[in-house]
Design brief:
361 residues, Elongation Factor Tu (Ef-tu), domain 3, OB fold (Dihydrolipoamide Acetyltransferase, E2P), Helix Hairpins, four-stranded antiparallel sheet, 20 strands
Length: 361
């Protein structure tokens, strides 16, 4: 009896092993997925990385040296051209005051001498003892001496009082807004020293003002893509701080010269924003721009990962019947790096085979 049980158990074990081997073989035979050929839109794009900036953005600086006495505007304020922003109190050095006073004294001496000579020449002309030409020459010298004295007095007044002696220049110590726009940055506080803008020095920035009604995307594009991009191409700008919102634009400038950045060769690019009012944009927003190079609508497409390349030909595997796979040549069109357009070789709804990745042992 025991022998019968042993024989029966052995038969059962063999049957189970055979069944498992059969199932494994069958599963290996059909171990793939199928993806139907479908219609869709494929877009070839080039990526540009950059920020949203105003077209016209300037720094406001003072024309005289001194300290900030009062501030009439703050960050975020909208201000019109010509409105007062800051009052500056002159803070001259002792040497500057001394030189200014000395120049006034010297020009006063020159003016007094020129006036005496002018009066003398005028009296001689009335007696017809000198010519008109000689008198005119002396008159010119007198007028020049008068202008030098006036100029030096005005310089001294600006240094000592912050205003000149004439009504025309009485407000030179008030810094005005050079354009109409929004104040983006403030660099000084009341009491801070200010260095003037001159030919030889950049000067202390006081405010940054920009016209926020005209914004632009400024960024860079890789050298691999720049050859495909042309001025006038449409672009879709995605703002990092505004997910889900797309701002439309048009390529307006491509730099003719590359620059190196972190061992990459990049070209500067600008994109004019077509619909700035579609979302609330702010200067300095980080953004990515997809520049549309080509677009194919309602075309047959498959995932590009399913395509195999042999020499100059492209192939895919298609399921012709259940568990029956056939290799088929195809012709590809536009690709976006994920999906590829199929121009020849496949019909809509054809099942394309996707093999599982090979296991590396």
């Amino acid at each position: 009896m025991k022998k019968v049980f042993l024989i029966g158990g052995g038969i059962i074990v063999v049957a189970v092993v055979a069944l498992l081997l059969f199932k494994n073989g069958k599963s290996e035979q059909v171990a793939y997925k199928t993806i139907p050929v479908a219609r869709g839109t494929i877009v070839e794009k080039a990526l540009a990385v950059g920020t949203i900036t105003p077209i016209n953005e300037i720094q406001v600086k003072s024309k005289i040296a001194g300290n900030v006495k009062a501030i009439h505007a703050d960050v975020g304020d909208w201000i019109e051209e010509g409105k007062y922003l800051v009052d500056i109190i002159p803070d001259p050095t002792p040497l500057e005051i001394t030189e200014a006073r000395r120049n006034v004294e010297i020009s006063q001496v020159g003016f007094d001498r020129a006036k005496r000579e002018y009066d003398r020449q005028k009296a001689l002309l009335e007696k017809k003892l000198i010519s008109e030409q000689a008198f005119e020459n002396q008159k010119t010298d007198y007028e020049e001496a008068e202008l030098r004295l006036k100029l030096n007095k005005e310089k001294l007044s600006l240094i000592e009082k912050g205003r000149s002696g004439t009504e025309t220049n009485a407000l030179e110590t008030k810094v005005k807004a050079p354009i109409t726009g929004t104040i983006l940055e403030k660099f000084v506080n009341v009491g801070d020293p200010v260095v003037p803008l001159t030919t030889y020095q950049a000067g202390t920035p006081i405010f940054t003002i920009a016209d926020m009604s005209e914004l632009i995307f400024r960024g860079t594009i890789d050298e691999i893509d720049v050859g495909k991009v042309k001025i006038g191409m449409p672009a879709e700008i995605k703002i990092g701080a505004l997910p889900g919102n797309i701002v439309e634009g048009t390529v307006s400038r491509i730099s003719p010269k590359a620059r190196k950045e972190d061992n990459a060769t990049l070209f500067d690019i600008e994109i004019n924003i077509s619909n700035p009012d579609s979302v609330q944009l702010r200067a300095g927003y980080s953004a990515n721009a997809d520049i549309i190079i080509k677009r194919a609508k309602d075309v047959l497409q498959i995932p590009e990962r399913l395509v195999t390349f042999e020499n100059d030909s492209t192939f895919v595997e298609v399921e012709t019947a259940p568990e029956s796979v056939e290799k088929k040549p195809i012709t590809l069109g536009l690709s976006d790096g994920v999906n590829a357009e199929v121009t020849e070789g496949l019909a809509e709804s054809t099942l394309v085979v996707e093999r599982p990745p090979k296991v590396i042992e």
